[in-house]
Design a protein that fits this description.
The chain is α/β, with parallel strands linked by helices. It folds into two domains: about 1-15 and about 260-405, Aspartate Aminotransferase, domain 1 (Alpha-Beta Complex); about 30-260, Aspartate Aminotransferase, domain 2 (3-Layer(aba) Sandwich), CATH 3.40.640. The chain is built from 13 helices and 14 strands. The protein has helices at about 1-5, 30-40, 50-65, 75-85, 100-110, 130-135, 155-165, 215-225, 250-280, 315-325, 345, 365-375, 390-405, and strands spanning about 65-70, 90-95, 115, 140, 165-170, 180, 185, 190-195, 210, 285-290, 295, 300-305, 330, 375-380. The chain has a seven-stranded mixed sheet, sandwiched between helices. The protein has a four-stranded antiparallel sheet with strand order 10-12-14-13. Helix 3 (about 50-65) runs parallel beside helix 9 (about 250-280), helix 4 packs across helix 8 and helix 9 (about 250-280) packs across helix 13. Bound molecules: pyridoxal-5'-phosphate (PLP). Pyridoxal-5'-phosphate binds near residues 100 and 173.
């Protein structure tokens, strides 16, 4: 019994998983592409042309969208899309609370009010039933996040949006290459926003992009990311309140070579995710999230499973996650609390932004999100999901090792 506990890597025993999972993945082709731009001297992007424009076309076409506008990061991508939708100060935007800060903070930065609605317990995505309940005469936009790379219930959200004449901006920061009923995530709503930050499934260190089929949105986002210039206008002619949010040619060069790998990598993560689901479903006290509503391809930016501490002799999720990480599985307990508990919201540290006085986040409570944060969710990072079937077997083995030691 003591022996099983001593065997845990956290207590000095041998690690179950000895392999490292590199990220990002690159080779000479990526390096050559960067060197070529570096040597050309044309590093910047004053005209939104060259490799940047070419990459935008490639990415739009990969997503099955008409247009794409690249920019400095995924947060700015979301904000440009929101502003281009024509929101006014005080308008409400429905967001989930189980997400990165930017999904909600960019709403405040656009002088709008994020309204948090709870997630579905089985997918951790925005619950359409809760969305419908949260709609008021101020609601303008629904901002679903395809969390971890699993598609939201887009049919239900689109039905609600069209019934209430709302726009949908997809936060697809986790979802490059993922699919819902055969359509690429990000290409389904009015606009879809992606991040190329260093942990993301497609990365250039930092960066972002928005895809859309709507020409008016495209023109406005294009202007906003390029200091308010407009198509056909002069260099010193500024029509809209934009900024320099342009991607560099160096980033575009890297994204171009990285994009060539994306489909194969996505298929691999999806395949491994399905395999790991089958393994983990057999472990008492471990339940992978349910595959979503008509999703055809999950990007597994994060592989998430639910942990039931009662089957692990009441070992807390925090302790379990630390043990799993020590066993060599790149894993972690995920968000420690719902987004609405951040001081930004609770203390209303909104600075110069014009947020109505009456807004109050201290009473917000989304029970499923709280459960995911405090009790259930354990995350495994996307680079692990590029491993082999044997690596997936080792993840299951590491969990069983912890369970045997906890229950000994
Ligand atoms: C769900 C989600 N939305 C938006 C973003 C913002 O992207 P960026 O970091 O590129 O600004 C992130 C980044 O982690 C994210 O996870």
């Amino acid at each position: 019994m003591e022996d099983l506990k001593q065997q845990l890597a956290l207590n000095g025993g041998p690690k179950t998983m000895k392999k490292e999972f590199p990220w990002p993945i690159f080779d000479d082709k990526d390096i050559d592409a960067i060197v070529e731009v570096a040597e050309s001297g044309a590093w910047g992007n004053p005209d939104c042309a060259g490799l940047v424009e070419q990459f935008e076309r490639n990415f739009a076409s990969y997503c099955g969208s008409k247009y794409a506008v690249s920019c400095v990061n995924g947060s700015v991508a979301l904000r440009l899309a929101l502003i281009a939708c024509g929101v006014k100060p005080g308008d409400e935007v429905i967001v989930p609370p189980y997400t990165f800060i930017a999904t909600a903070s960019i709403v405040l930065e656009s002088n709008c009010v994020p309204v948090f609605v709870d997630i579905e317990p089985e997918t951790y995505n925005m619950d359409p039933v809760e969305v419908e309940k949260a709609i008021t005469d101020k609601t303008r936009v629904i901002l679903p996040v395809h969390f971890a790379g699993q598609s939201c219930n887009m049919d239900a959200l689109q039905e609600i949006a069209s019934k209430h004449k709302l726009r949908i901006i997809e936060d697809a920061a986790h979802a490059h290459g993922g699919e819902y009923k055969g359509k690429k995530l990000g290409s389904i709503g009015d606009a879809g926003c992606f991040s190329f930050q260093s942990s993301k499934n497609l990365t250039s260190g930092e960066g972002g992009i928005i895809v859309t089929d709507d020409e008016e949105l495209y023109d406005m986002m294009n202007s906003l990311r390029n200091v308010g210039r407009v198509k056909g206008g002069q260099w010193y002619e500024h029509h809209n309140l934009g900024c320099n949010y342009r991607l560099t040619q160096l980033q575009a060069a890297l994204l171009t070579t990285q994009l060539e790998r994306l489909e194969e990598q996505t298929q691999k993560r999806n395949e491994n995710g399905l395999y790991l689901n089958a393994l983990l479903e057999k472990i008492d006290g471990i339940r992978p999230l349910t595959r979503g509503h008509g999703e055809t391809l999950h990007t597994y930016h994060i592989y998430i499973f639910k942990y039931d501490q009662s089957k692990f002799n009441n070992l807390s999720k925090r302790e379990f996650a630390a043990m799993l990480a020590a066993e060599g599985v790149p894993s972690f307990m995920g968000y420690p609390e719902p987004l609405y508990k951040q001081p930004l919201f609770r203390e209303k540290n909104f600075m110069c932004y014009a947020i109505p006085e009456a807004v109050d986040y201290t009473n917000v409570c989304c029970p499923e999100t709280e459960r995911a944060c405090y009790v259930d969710a354990v995350w495994i990072m996307q680079n692990t999901m590029l491993g082999t079937k044997e690596d997936m077997d080792l993840i299951a083995e590491a969990i069983l090792k912890i369970q045997r030691a906890a229950c000994a």
